[in-house]
Amino acid sequence: MHQKLFILATIALSAVNAHTGTHVVANAAEAPATTFKFSETFPEAGIIPTAKPEWLELIKNVEIANAPVYKVGNGLVPGQDPHCDWTFTGCLAKDDLYKCPKGQWALTYDDGPSEFSPKLYDYLDTVNAKVTFFMVGGQVVKFPDYTLRAFKAGHELAMHTWSHNYMTSLTNEQIVAELKWNELAIKEVTGFAPRLFRPPFGDIDNRVRDVAAALGFVPVIWNFDTNDWSYSSNPEGYPQSWIEGNVTKWADNAATAIDGGVSLQHDLYDSTVNLAIDILPILDKAYDLIPVGACNSVKVYKEGNSTADKPSPPSPSSSSSSMTEESSASMVSASSIGLGIAALTAAALL
């Protein structure tokens, strides 16, 4: 046995590369007062957690792809993609969800809930639009009332891991912990365990897929990136007018598009929430807006999709105790411009 260092890098269109910016909100407000009481003691937010022993039993006898554990770093050597890594090549596996049928569009928002999410909830209520929120576990624990509000409003709640780290840089055990703590936080608040998850930065390969599948989770990517994260961090380089222009092109192409859309947006910042409110009407004129689970006809929660015949979620004052790969060419939107560079350094024992 000896250790061999692999350096893998790729240059890909920005539309198929997720943002590489920080998940930290500068001068974030304190969480509002809540009467919600969690029965579980959760890990520290933003830190890779440790899995419970019983969770690790779920992957004990599972065949998992022998992909390396990557270290996020700098690399200049072009790499190959033997493990269907979406970050490197936009590779999709057969169970990845990333689009809607023609004529439908799924609005998806990552990284929340945040202090700015209620503004978006208010607007969605006004226009009667249902969307999918990919929530970070630490944010759910910080804002349980916002989480419950989104759920009760009929939006789909899905997972975005506990700490928002690159999933291919995690061990199998850490992947289990990231997903199961995220699941547990949402279930404590709503009474429902989500099935759908979005890997932070779109960072997923067959190893991550195998671990997630063993836990009963389904990955969701996207085929249209609004680049709202760039607008938030660099409004002069990525002005709102540029983003609105792209969205307008997507809407104008609705009649001739082969597939519908799943767009990537965020409700972590005030600027991205305001942008979301501004661009929703553009897409609403051209597409039927529908949550991503609904447009793919999949179960959103392990208990089922409909909440009508299920127990009510806990009140705020209480709580409940090798795949077939397909081309990614269809994922690149016509409005994509620029290049993104993603590099990871992988160390594997051979």
Query: How much of the polypeptide forms β-strand, as a percent range?
Result: 15-25%
CATH homologous superfamily heading: Glycoside hydrolase/deacetylase
Overall geometric form:
globular
Our count of domains comes out at 1
Q: What's the number of extended β-strand segments?
A: 13
Unreliable segments (pLDDT under 50, ≥5 consecutive)? 1-22, 74-78, 306-313, 315-350
GO molecular function, one term: chitin deacetylase activity
Domain NodB homology: 103-292
Protein name: NodB homology domain-containing protein
InterPro entries: Glyco_hydro/deAcase_b/a-brl, NODB_dom, Polysacc_deacetylase_ArnD
Structure in words:
With 350 residues, the protein is α/β, with parallel strands linked by helices. It has a single domain (3-21, 34-349), classed as TIM Barrel (Alpha-Beta Barrel), CATH 3.20.20.370. 29% of the residues lie in helices and 17% in strands. The chain has helices at residues 53-56, 86-89, 117-127, 137-142, 144-152, 172-190, 206-214, 228-233, 240-252, 270-284, 292-295; strands at 3-13, 69-72, 92-93, 104-110, 132-135, 156-159, 196-197, 218-219, 224-225, 261-266, 288-289, 325-326, 339-349. The strands form 4 sheets. Strands 4, 5, 6, 9, 10 and 11 form a 6-stranded parallel β-sheet that branches. β4, α3 and β5 (132-135) form a beta-alpha-beta unit. The longest helix has 19 residues, at 172-190. The model is unreliable at 1-22, 74-78, 306-313 and 315-350 (pLDDT under 50). It holds the Pfam family Polysacc_deac_1. This is NodB homology domain-containing protein. Keywords: Hydrolase, Metal-binding, Signal. InterPro entries: Glyco_hydro/deAcase_b/a-brl, NODB_dom, Polysacc_deacetylase_ArnD. Residues 1-18 form the signal peptide.
